[in-house]
Design brief:
single chain, elongated, alpha/beta, 21% strand
Length: 393
């Protein structure tokens, strides 16, 4: 093993207490999308304590930040991505506390050797992945413009997987305004709840026209306050997924048709808000191959994910359209415990999760070192990126 590689591993080992402490602190104080003030405080304190700069409020997001350390040249520029938002009611059921600690560890470890390398390394704090697309906002603000490679991991169940794809996704919120009335005289009102129910029914009628990987799931968020009152207002939300951005936009149009039909049928007026569009993901297989090799050195065996599957979604997909990324998965829970389930929350602070924090930090830092240390490898990664974008799924 290269001596500098060994040095960064030792640096991460020396931060073991701090990194596991960071993961647990974020886990104990779950904060939802764009409200991660305590999490960013914990991270900033660790970074500044290690002598690293922190630029807060990046891209107009209070809980986004950037820390950069330059080596012997400003490029190539490599960024580790940290997430730290939790889910409403069930906390860190997606393990973002593990992601944050692993990326912080990788960054601080690589910082110990980056003065000997051509390039620069950054840690990007990317808030709001679950609901508000922090990475998309940061992309649009130009934060990624001078970044050549981006790396992160994600906790999972059952297996540790390489190069797993992801579908395009967005959210749709609908507010129907009707006219309230006494339930004894429904004809004097316009039932906004009926408009919501009709929307669900029309979407169901459209399902036979969906593409294979299209999903539309929804909930009613407000349907009235009393059974003897015709609701004058009602709201609902939908989660949409599709194989690609192109197909996602088509799916949004179909949902809009359902909303329009419900409004016309009931007489209610619909106010529709479509969220940011999360793109499909193009993981860089060359980078994942290097990560796999480094994780094997650390005693962690990983499998290649199936190229097809009904996968979830993340704003890392939008980053993958701009530059080469990895977003590989390390198991922290048994296969029967799914992410985004309350049972997963406890596993995000388990002994195995702590092990993954340290292994992932080392594996990411080792992979970043390999990239910065080899112009040939950089070329292979960029060729892989170009091929993937030239033939999207």
């Amino acid at each position: 093993m290269h001596q500098l590689k060994q040095s960064l591993i030792e640096a991460i080992d020396n931060l073991q207490v701090e990194l596991i402490g960071l993961s647990h602190a974020i886990h104990r104080t779950p904060e939802t999308s764009l409200k991660e003030h305590q999490a960013t405080k914990y991270i900033a304190e660790l970074l500044t304590g290690a002598g690293r700069p922190v630029q807060s409020g990046v891209a107009g997001l209070d809980t986004a930040f950037v820390s950069t350390t330059k080596g012997q040249a400003p490029r190539p520029h490599l960024a580790f991505l940290a997430e730290y938002d939790a889910l409403p009611d069930i906390g860190h059921a997606c393990g973002h506390n593990v992601i944050a600690a692993a990326s912080v560890g990788a960054y601080l470890g690589l910082c110990q050797v980056v003065p000997h390398l051509n390039g620069a390394v950054s840690l990007f704090g990317t808030p709001g992945e679950e609901a508000d697309g922090g990475k998309i906002v940061m992309l649009e603000a130009g934060v990624f413009d001078d970044v050549d490679f981006a790396l992160m991991i994600h906790p999972s169940s059952g297996k540790s997987l390489l190069a797993r794809g992801g579908r395009a996704a967005t959210g749709v919120k609908v507010h129907f305004r009707g006219k309230a009335a006494h339930s004894s005289a429904p004809s004097r009102g316009i039932n906004a709840l009926n408009a919501v129910l009709s929307t669900f029914q029309h979407i169901d009628m459209l399902r036979p026209t969906f593409n294979l990987q299209d999903n539309v799931n929804g909930i009613i968020t407000h349907g009235g306050t009393a059974a003897n009152v015709i609701p004058g207002e009602a709201t609902c939300e939908f989660s949409l997924r599709a194989a690609t951005l192109v197909e996602l936009k088509q799916l949004v149009e179909k949902v809009q048709l359902a909303i329009d039909a419900a409004a016309k049928l009931t007489g209610a007026v619909a106010e529709v808000k479509v969220g940011l569009l999360y793109a499909e993901r193009y993981p860089n297989q060359v980078m994942s191959r290097v990560f796999q090799s480094n994780m094997a050195e650390l005693g962690e065996e990983m499998e290649w994910a199936s190229p097809v599957g009904m996968y979830g979604s993340s704003d890392i997909g939008n980053v993958s359209l701009k530059l080469p990324v990895i977003h590989d998965y390390l198991w922290i829970a048994p296969p029967e415990v799914n992410t985004h389930h309350a049972d997963f929350t406890a596993f995000s602070a388990s002994t195995r999760a702590d092990e993954v924090v340290l292994k992932a930090a080392k594996g990411l830092a080792m992979t970043a070192f390999d990239i910065l240390n080899s112009a040939t490898l950089q070329g292979e990664i960029k060729e892989c990126f170009a091929r993937a974008l030239g033939s999207p799924s």
